[in-house]
Amino acid sequence: MERKETGLFRAGFVAIVGRPNVGKSTLLNRLLGEHVAIVSARPQTTRTRILGILHGKGVQMALFDTPGVHEAKGPLNRRMVETALGTLAEVDLALVLVEAGTGPNLKVEPGDTVRLVVEKVRRAGKPAVLGINKMDRAPRETLLPVIEAYRGLFDWQAVVPFSALTGENVDRLVECLGALLPEAEAPLFPEDMLTDQAERVLAAEYVREQAMELTRDEIPYSLAVEVEEFDESSRRDRGGLVHIGAVVLVERESQKAIVIGKGGSMLKKIGTRARERLERLLGAKVFLRLTVKVEERWREKAAALKRLGIGP
Ligand code: GDP
Ligand code: MG
User: Fold this and answer.
1) Distance between Cα 230 and ligand 2 center (Å)
2) Domain-wise residue ranges, the chain
3) Ligand 1 pocket member 137 (CB < 6 A)
4) Residue range 199-307 in CATH 3.30.300.20
5) 49 ligand 1 Cβ < 6 A
6) Which tens digit of pLDDT belongs to each residue from 171-223?
7) pTM assigned to the model
8) Measured from the CB, is residue 255 less than 6 Å from ligand 1?
9) CATH 3.40.50.2000, domain 10-180, yes or no
10) Where are the alpha helices (DSSP H) in the chain?
C-alpha cells in the first residue's frame, strides 16, 4: 500500500466554492474522470452539494461541489447559497474558484460575491487556495493582473490558474490541495468509492442536465426531475436492461407543452441524450421512460424542496 511505503498519508475534505458558472462541477468531473456533477452553460445548475472522492498517491481528497454563491432571491436559491456557505464549516480546506475573463468580460477586480465568500472562509477560520479557472481562453498577459488583484484579498495558501475544460495545470492544483490536507492514519472512504450520489439520483440529474440545456428562457429554472422507478432486477442478465421511470416537473402548463415539444420531439431528445450518458455510467442498456408533470411553484414550497433533496 502506498501510504506504508511513503510513511505519510494525507486525507481530508475540500469545499469547492465560488460564483455560479465558474466551473466548479466541471472541475469535480475532471478530477474524478466521471460525470458525477451535471454541467450546463446556465448559472445555478448545481442545486445540492455533491461529494466526489479523489484517490491519489498517498492522498485521499474528498471534495464537495457546491451550488454557486450569488445574490439569492426565493427559497430555492437561498437554500442553495446556504448549502454552499454552510459546507465551509465542515471542511479542512476551501478551494475558492474564480474565472479568468477575456475581452469585454475581463474583470480584474474581485467582485462582491467573491469578497463575501472570502469573508465566510475567513470567519470559518479555514485555509484556502484560489483557483483561477478557464485559463484556456485567457491570454497569459491578462492573467497576471487578475492574480495580483486577488492576492491582496486573502492570505491564500496558493494561487493556481488552470483549465477544468482542457485539464491544463489541474495536476498542479491537485498537488497544492493534497499537500495542505491533514496527515491521516487511514483513508476516510473505501478506495473504490467515487461519490455519495446514488445511481438513482444521478439518473434524475442527467435528465435535468439535458432538459436544462435544451430548453430556453425561464424553463431551466422551473425544472426538477424525480425518479419514480429504478429497476435493475434484470441488469445482470444477458443483454439486461435497467428500467428507469422519471417525472420532469415544471411549474406551468405552458412549460409542460414546451418540454414535451411538437409530437413529443423535445422530450424524446432529452430522453435520448440522458439515456446515452446513463448507459455509459451504468455499463448497461437503459430503458428510460419520461413523463412531464405540472407542480405549481414547487420552488417556493418547503415540502417539495425537501422531497427533491434540496437544501442544507
Ligand atoms: P459551476 O456552475 O461553477 O458548477 O460551472 P459548470 O461546471 O457548470 O460550468 C459552467 C460553464 O463553464 C459550462 O458551460 C462549462 O463547460 C464551462 N467551463 C468550465 N470550465 C471551463 C474551462 O476551463 N474553460 C472554458 N472555456 N469553459 C469552462
Ligand atoms: Mg455546478
Assistant:
1) 25
2) 10-180, 199-307
3) yes
4) yes
5) no
6) 999 999 999 999 999 999 999 999 999 999 999 999 999 999 999 888 999 99
7) 0.91
8) no
9) no
10) 2-6, 24-32, 74-87, 112-124, 140-151, 170-179, 199-214, 219-222, 253-260, 265-282, 302-307
